[in-house]
Structure formats: structure tokens, C-alpha cells
Amino acid sequence: MKKSKYWFFLSVILLIFSSVVVSAIDLRVWMVGVSNEQVKIINDILDADFTPKTGIKAQIEQLPWSGSDNRMLLAAASGDTPDVALMSGLLAAEIGIRGAMVDLKQEFGTDFNNHIKDTFPNAFRTYEFMGAVFGVPFQMAVSPMVYRVDTFKEMGVAKPDTWDDIRAIIPKLQAKQMNFALAYGIAAESFRDFQMFLWQNGGDMYSEDRTKSAWDSPQSLKAFKEYTELYRTYKIPQAPQHFESFRRGELPVACIPWWTYANYSIGLPELVGKFNLSVVPGTKRDGKIYHTNWAAGTPLAMFKKSKHKKEAWTFMKFMTSVDFQKQYTKLISERIPGSIYLPSTRSAYSYMPIPEQHRQVFLQQAEYSMTPPFAIASEMVVNRYIEFAINKVVVQKLNAEEALLEAAKQMNGDLKTRIADYNRFIKKYQK
Fold this sequence. Notes:
The chain has 16 helices and 13 strands. It has helices at 2-23, 36-54, 68-78, 91-96, 104-115, 149-155, 163-174, 190-200, 218-232, 242-248, 261-267, 309-319, 322-335, 356-368, 379-394, 400-426, and strands at residues 25-32, 56-63, 84-86, 128-129, 132-133, 136-142, 145-148, 180-181, 253-255, 275-278, 283-285, 288-290, 295-302.
């Protein structure tokens, strides 16, 4: 009798265990641009806080940035997709409108709206189209200004708050063989600096319905002239060497790419207490100063072919939750010296292990900044149009207004062709 009871209880336990094993869900997750160390941190957090509570496992596959867009497109076309992917910003909407990605706002409704309350609303411009939303920001990229407190004190000048201030101090700096620099110069990615001026002046990349270029608006033309004037008239460096020039005192004030911040914090022990961060200079308009800058919010997105949409959404919510973002932000800096992570939730910024004043600057700049809007036009082509226009004005000394109007005309041609090609996809979003 006792033996039969033993086998009965053992079989019950085995049945329970086997049912748990069978019910466990394995999600396929592709993540672009994450290192082995970052994946280890993510897996550690998932193993400790997510899988035991949900029974959901995530099998993460790393993808390099190079070629990742093509791989995502091929996966969408073939139907052999992961459940979730961390991908480049505009790609989620580009393949989303073709029907390959889940419209999270439509699919999850109130739960989606409640989940994103702590995220930065301007991040969604990159993966939103006509009311559909195809991603949730996992990490942010926002760029501040860095300046030498000691140099400014010696010169008797205040930290610049506006572009008028910058234009006023550049001659003083140049008189001492110093200068100011924008983040990207006029080579690759110069469109990011231009967009800073564009948005601060009230312009944008596209018309409100995103079917035409907005570069021909008065606000955009004003922004382009102000931006190119810094190179043509004020002679700021076209290819700035930020870190070394800052260390030597040649660039005591500059807008910098966000990922270089760790270099300043760790690589300049001799300048501890002698430099600081600030939001980028702003433009006075409508009675206030706008400190808008270019930003990127790399999204997690869900493929429509996923057979586990409920579980995939649970995973996406966890990865973009305040709790995960706090842990991840802290562990990135602890385990990967010289790295900085900018979280996608406001509350997690308090966990960045950097000086409090610097944390506040990054948070404030994230609140002010905007991501590029998604439109049907190819991002690569559109950015090339503006980079050509910048070179025409700065290098070839052509007229700024004519160069930008020509770029707007080229963009409109590209938009017209692409909208015709995509009409069968986008007409369902048009109201």
C-alpha cells in the first residue's frame, strides 16, 4: 500500500513537472548592435526576474548593424521571422506598413498606452505611421553639449545658452586659436546637426501628412542658412576631432555625439571638475528657447508571423519597463567600463552612475529632443540629398536657399515614386 502511494505521488509530481516544461514558451529574439557583454547582462536579468515569473524564455541572437536591415527584410518576405527584434529605428515602420509587423497600439490598446507613459513621446515618431505604432523604444541616443568650465572662467564668458551666444563667443575663441564645433561636421551624418536647427526653428522633414518635403518652408530655409553659416562665415571645423581637441583646449565647447561621453569621463582625469555638460544651444522662438536636438530611440518590434504574440508582448513590456531599464542601466556601467547606456524610460535616468548634473542634462536633452519622422521615402536617399546640399553650400560656396530647394525637389520626386509603389500598403492607413 505504501509503495503504491509512493508511485502515485511520484507520477503526479512528474506530470506537473512535464506540464510546466511543455507549457514553457521559447521566444526567438534578434537584437542588432548589442555586444556579448550586453547579451550576458540581459540574460542574467531575464533568468533572475523574468523567466521564473512568466515561464517565458528568450533565445537571443546577435546581429551586427551591417546587413541587419536586409536580413530583417528577407525574414519578413520569407515568413521565417523571429518573434521580436531590436532593429534600426525606421525599419520597424518600413516593414510594418507592408504588413510584416504588429501594430502594437491596435493590438494591445489600453495596455500599450499605459505601458508607454514613462517613455519619451518624441521617440515614437520614427516607428509611427498614420496612427499605427510598430515599436517601443528600448534605448535612447541623445547628444548634449560639453564645455570647459576653466576656459570660460579665464575668458570671463558665460556658458552659451542660445545660438546667438555661440555666434558671439566664436570670434573671442578664435582670437585665442580656439573654436566651437558641431557634433558631426559636414561628412557622414551631418543631417543630424541640420535637423537640430530645423526643429528648433519650427521646421520639419516632411509635410504633416508626410507626403511632401517640408524643406521648402520658410522655417526650414532659415534653419539651413543658420546651420551652413556657422561653417561659411564663422569657420567652425568641418571635421572636428572632438576628444583630443577638447583635451588640448582647442575646442573648449562643442556639441558631441552621445557615445563619446564616456571618453570624456574616463579619459580625461586631468580635467575632472574642469568641464561640464549642458543641453545644446537653443533658438529663441515664440517667447521661449527651443533646445531640440536629433535623437534616436532603437525599438523592440514584434513580427506578425509570431505564434506567441501575447508572450512576445509580455517580453517587450519587461525589456522596456522601468525596473528592467534601471537594472540594465546600472549593470552596463558596472560590468562594461567606459560604456554608457541611455535608458528609454525617464525614471531609469536616476540609476546612471554619472554625476547628478550630467544625469539631469541627459534627461533634459532626451525630453527636448526628437527622432526623425518615418515617411515612405528612403532614409538613406533623403539623408544623401541634404548632405549633398550641405556640401554645395559649405565647400562649393553655392547659394544656401537654392541648394535646399533643389534638395526638396529631389525629395519630392523620391516621395512620389515611393508612395505610388507603396500605395497598396498605405491606403489602409489613410483616412
